[in-house]
C-alpha cells in the first residue's frame, strides 16, 4: 500500500474511457429527446423543449406503444414471480442429492448458451404444430423463463454455497418442522438474494427480443415494438421514449435497492441476525 | 426422514424440470424434426422427411459467406472484449483498494444495461450517423473532406455495438477469478524478481483461465446467434447467420430456418467444446 504506481493511472484512464464509451451514446439520446419541435435525429439541438415527451401521449402513427408497454410490464412481473419461486425451490433441491440432477443442470446451462433464435423457433413451431395460438402470456412467457431461470439458478447456487447450515440445524434441534425452518430461518437469510433474482428476472424479460421474436404471436412486447419502430420513425419521439424507459428502469432498480435496505433495517430493528447467515 | 427428504428434493426440482421439458427440450427436439419438413407458401409446416432443407444450406454460397462474416465478427469481438474486459477486471481487482469502491465502479458499469437494448443501439445513430457527432468532429478537424460513410450501418457499427453490449460479460467472470487469487502468490512473484508484466502473464493470466473461458463462451454464443444488433446497426448491408435465420422466419419458411438453426447449433457447440477444454466451468460456481 504505497503511492499509486504509473500503471494505476494508465489503467484508470482506460477504465474512464470505457465508462465514457458506455455512457456517451445514452447521454446523446437523452439530450436529443429535449430537441425543439423542429429538431431532427442528430445534433445540433434545434431549441430545447418537452415537445417530444408530450408527443408520445398523442394518438399517432407510431405503433402500439402503450399496449406493448402494458404487456411488457405484465409479462415482466409474471416472469419475475415465476423465476423467484422456481429458482428458490430448485436451489433447495440442489442442496440435496437427487437423480438426474446433473442432467437437469446441463440442460439449464445449455439453455443459456443456445442461440436464442433456435429456442424461439422451437417454441413457435411447437405451438404451430399443436394448433395453439401463440401469445405473450403463454409461449413468450415460457420462452422468457428459459432465459431467466438459468441466471436465477446460478445465483441460487452461489447463495447456497455460502449458506451456513448450522442455522438450520439449530432450528431443527429446537423442534422446528421442515416448513418452519424454511419459513423462519432460510427465507429471511436468503431474502436479499431473492430480490436480486427478482430484479434479474424482470430486467431480462422486460428487455428480451430474440426469444420473444417467434413466440410472441400477434401482440408485441415493447422491445419488439421498438425494434419495428426504429426502421421507420424519423423524429426524436423515439429518443423521448428511450428517456422514459431509462427513467423507468432506474426507478425499478432504485425501488428494489431501497427495498433491500428497508428489509435489512427492519430485521436489525427486530434484533434479527439473519444477515449473518451467509458465510 | 431420509426417504421424505429425497421426495422433497424431487418435488422442489419438479417445476424447473417441467419448464425446461416443455419450453426447451421439446422445442429443440421439434426444431430437429421440422428441419426435415416440407413447406409451402400457405402452409408453414408439412410433415415429411426431406433432405433438401439441408442440401440448400450446404449448397448455397450465401451460407459460407454469412458464416465467414459471423466468424469474423466473433473473432474481432472476442479479441476486443477479452483484452478490454481483462484490463478492466485487473484494474478493479488489483488497483482499486476498497470493496466499497469496487462495488461503486461495478455499478457504474452496469447502469447503462438498465436501458432497453434497442434504445442502447439506436443511441449510436446521433453519434456515428452521416451527420453525427463523430463525422462533425472529423470534418471540423480537417481529417476528412466528406462525411465518413462506413461509421453507421456497417460491420464497424455492428462490432462497436457488440463491444458495447458484451464487454461486461467478460469483466464479471474474469473479475470473479481474480478475486480468488491468493495475494501472497503475487508477493512471491515480486520477491522472486518478476516484473509487473511477468506477474500478469505468468501468474494472473493462468489463474484466470476459468473466468476467461466462461466470458468467452458467453460472448461467442451471443455473437454467433445474434440478429438484433446486426439488424439495427448493420442496416441492410450486413448479414450474419442469425439474421439469415430471422429473415427466413419472417417469410414463414420454418423448415429451412430449422435446418439453418441446426447447422448453427452444431457450430456453436463445437466452439464451446473447444473453449471448455481450457476450464472446468462447473467448479467455478
UniProtKB/TrEMBL annotation, chain A:
Membrane-spanning segments: 7-34, 75-94, 103-124, 136-160, 181-202, 237-263
InterPro entries: Bact_Polyamine_Transport, MetI-like, MetI-like_sf
Annotated GO CC locations: plasma membrane
Membrane association type: Multi-pass membrane protein
Cell compartments where the protein resides: Cell membrane
Family, per entry: Belongs to the binding-protein-dependent transport system permease family. CysTW subfamily.
Name of the protein in question: ABC transporter permease
TrEMBL record, chain B:
Xref: CDD domains: TM_PBP2
Pfam family, any one: BPD_transp_1
GO CC annotations on file: plasma membrane
Record keywords, A-Z: Cell membrane, Membrane, Transmembrane, Transmembrane helix, Transport
Membrane topology: Multi-pass membrane protein
Transmembrane segments: 12-37, 69-92, 104-125, 150-175, 254-276
Protein name listed in UniProt: ABC transporter permease
A single GO BP: transmembrane transport
Compartment(s): Cell membrane
Family: Belongs to the binding-protein-dependent transport system permease family. CysTW subfamily.
Annotated PANTHER family: INNER MEMBRANE ABC TRANSPORTER PERMEASE PROTEIN YDCU-RELATED, INNER MEMBRANE ABC TRANSPORTER PERMEASE PROTEIN YDCU-RELATED-RELATED
Domain of life: Bacteria
Location of the ABC transmembrane type-1 domain: 67-275
Amino acid at each position: 500500500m504505497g503511492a499509486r504506481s504509473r500503471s494505476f493511472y494508465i489503467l484508470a484512464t482506460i477504465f474512464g474511457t470505457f465508462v465514457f464509451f458506455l455512457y456517451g451514446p445514452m447521454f446523446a439520446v437523452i439530450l436529443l429527446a429535449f430537441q425543439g419541435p423542429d429538431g431532427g435525429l442528430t445534433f445540433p439541438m434545434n431549441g430545447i423543449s418537452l415537445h417530444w415527451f408530450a408527443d408520445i401521449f398523442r394518438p399517432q402513427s407510431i405503433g402500439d406503444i402503450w399496449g406493448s408497454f402494458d404487456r411488457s410490464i405484465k409479462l415482466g412481473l409474471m416472469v419475475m414471480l415465476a423465476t423467484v419461486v422456481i429458482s428458490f425451490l430448485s436451489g433447495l433441491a440442489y442442496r440435496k442429492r437427487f437423480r438426474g440432477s446433473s442432467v437437469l443442470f446441463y440442460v439449464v446451462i445449455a439453455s443459456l448458451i443456445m442461440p436464442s433464435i433456435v429456442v424461439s423457433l422451437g417454441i413457435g413451431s411447437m405451438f404451430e404444430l399443436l394448433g395453439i395460438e401463440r401469445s405473450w402470456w403463454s409461449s413468450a412467457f415460457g420462452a422468457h423463463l428459459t432465459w431467466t431461470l438459468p441466471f436465477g439458478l446460478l445465483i441460487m447456487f452461489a447463495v447456497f454455497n455460502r449458506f451456513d447450515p448450522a442455522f438450520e440445524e439449530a432450528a431443527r434441534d429446537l423442534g422446528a418442522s421442515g416448513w418452519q425452518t424454511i419459513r423462519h430461518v432460510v427465507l429471511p437469510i436468503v431474502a436479499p438474494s431473492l430480490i436480486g433474482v427478482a430484479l434479474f428476472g424482470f430486467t431480462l424479460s422486460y428487455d428480451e427480443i430474440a426469444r420473444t421474436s417467434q413466440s410472441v404471436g400477434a401482440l408485441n412486447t415493447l422491445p419488439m415494438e421498438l425494434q419495428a419502430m426504429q426502421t421507420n420513425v424519423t423524429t426524436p419521439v423515439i429518443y423521448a421514449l428511450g428517456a422514459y424507459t431509462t427513467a423507468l428502469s432506474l426507478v425499478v432498480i432504485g425501488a428494489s435497492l431501497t427495498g433491500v435496505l428497508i428489509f435489512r433495517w427492519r430485521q436489525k430493528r427486530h434484533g434479527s441476525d439473519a444477515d449473518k447467515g451467509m458465510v | 426422514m431420509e426417504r421424505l427428504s429425497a421426495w422433497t428434493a424431487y418435488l422442489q426440482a419438479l417445476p424447473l424440470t417441467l419448464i425446461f421439458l416443455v419450453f426447451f427440450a421439446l422445442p429443440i427436439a421439434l426444431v430437429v424434426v421440422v428441419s426435415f419438413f416440407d413447406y409451402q407458401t400457405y402452409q408453414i409446416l408439412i410433415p415429411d422427411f426431406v433432405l433438401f432443407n439441408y442440401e440448400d444450406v450446404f449448397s448455397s454460397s450465401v451460407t459460407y459467406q454469412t458464416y465467414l462474416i459471423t466468424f469474423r465478427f466473433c473473432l474481432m469481438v472476442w479479441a476486443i472484449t477479452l483484452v478490454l474486459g481483462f484490463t478492466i477486471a485487473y484494474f478493479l481487482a488489483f488497483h482499486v483498494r476498497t470493496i466499497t469502491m469496487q462495488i461503486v465502479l461495478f455499478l457504474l458499469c452496469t447502469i447503462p444495461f438498465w436501458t432497453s437494448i434497442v434504445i442502447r443501439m439506436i443511441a449510436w445513430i446521433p453519434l456515428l450517423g452521416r451527420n453525427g457527432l463523430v463525422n462533425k468532429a472529423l470534418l471540423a478537424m480537417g481529417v476528412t473532406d466528406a462525411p465518413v460513410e462506413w461509421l453507421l450501418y456497417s460491420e464497424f457499427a455492428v462490432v462497436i455495438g457488440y463491444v458495447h453490449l458484451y464487454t461486461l460479460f467478460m469483466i464479471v467472470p474474469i473479475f470473479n477469478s481474480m478475486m480468488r487469487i491468493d495475494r501472497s502468490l503475487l508477493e512471491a512473484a515480486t520477491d522472486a524478481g518478476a516484473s509487473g508484466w511477468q506477474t500478469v502473464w505468468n501468474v494472473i493470466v493462468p489463474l484466470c483461465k476459468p473466468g476467461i473461458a466462461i466470458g468467452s463462451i458467453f460472448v461467442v454464443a451471443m455473437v454467433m446467434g445474434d440478429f438484433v444488433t446486426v439488424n439495427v446497426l448493420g442496416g441492410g448491408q450486413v448479414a450474419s447467420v442469425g439474421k439469415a435465420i430471422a429473415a427466413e422466419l419472417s417469410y414463414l419458411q420454418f423448415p429451412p430456418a430449422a435446418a439453418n438453426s441446426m447447422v448453427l447449433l452444431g457450430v456453436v457447440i463445437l466452439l464451446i467444446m473447444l473453449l471448455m477444454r481450457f476450464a472446468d466451468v462447473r467448479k467455478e460456481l
